[in-house]
Write a structure and sequence with these properties.
By secondary structure, the chain is mainly α. The protein is built from four helices and no strands.
C-alpha cells in the first residue's frame, strides 16, 4: 500500500510540475506575442490582441477535449449495446426455456435475487444505473 501511495505521489508531483512548466511557457509565449505586436500597434491594443489570442486558444482546447470525451462516450455506449445484444441473442432463448422447464427453481432464483438486491446497497446502485441507461 505504501508503494502505491509513493507512486501516486510521484505521478501527481510530476503532473503538477508539468502543468507549472506549461503555464509558464504559455505566459512567455503570450509575452512574446505582445512584444512582437508592440512594433505594429499601441501597447493596450497589443495586450488585448495577445490576451484574446490566448483565450481563443483555450476555448479551442476545451472544445477539442469535449469532442474527444463525447466520442469516447459514444464508442463505449455502442460497445455496451453490442455486447447486450449478443448476450441476449446467445442466452435469451436458453434462459426462457430453462425458466419454462423449471418453474420452482425460477421462483426461488427470483426470490434470492430480490433478497440480494434488497440487502446489498452496492448491487442496488449498479442495477439502478443500469436501468437508467435504458
Amino acid at each position: 500500500m505504501d508503494r502505491l501511495a509513493v507512486r501516486i505521489g510521484i505521478r501527481a508531483g510530476a503532473f503538477l510540475a508539468a502543468v507549472i512548466l506549461v503555464v509558464g511557457g504559455l505566459g512567455f509565449l503570450v509575452l512574446a506575442a505582445y512584444l512582437a505586436l508592440l512594433d505594429h500597434v499601441s501597447p493596450p491594443q497589443a495586450a488585448l490582441i495577445a490576451a484574446a489570442t490566448a483565450f481563443v486558444l483555450a476555448g479551442i482546447v476545451i472544445l477539442g477535449g469535449r469532442a474527444i470525451i463525447a466520442t469516447m462516450r459514444q464508442r463505449n455506449e455502442r460497445d455496451v449495446d453490442r455486447f447486450a445484444e449478443a448476450f441476449r441473442l446467445i442466452l435469451g432463448d436458453e434462459i426462457v426455456a430453462l425458466a419454462t422447464e423449471n418453474p420452482e427453481a425460477t421462483v426461488l432464483t427470483a426470490l434470492f435475487t430480490g433478497f440480494a438486491v434488497g440487502a446489498v446497497p452496492e448491487l442496488r446502485h449498479v442495477l439502478r444505473e443500469l436501468l437508467r441507461k435504458r
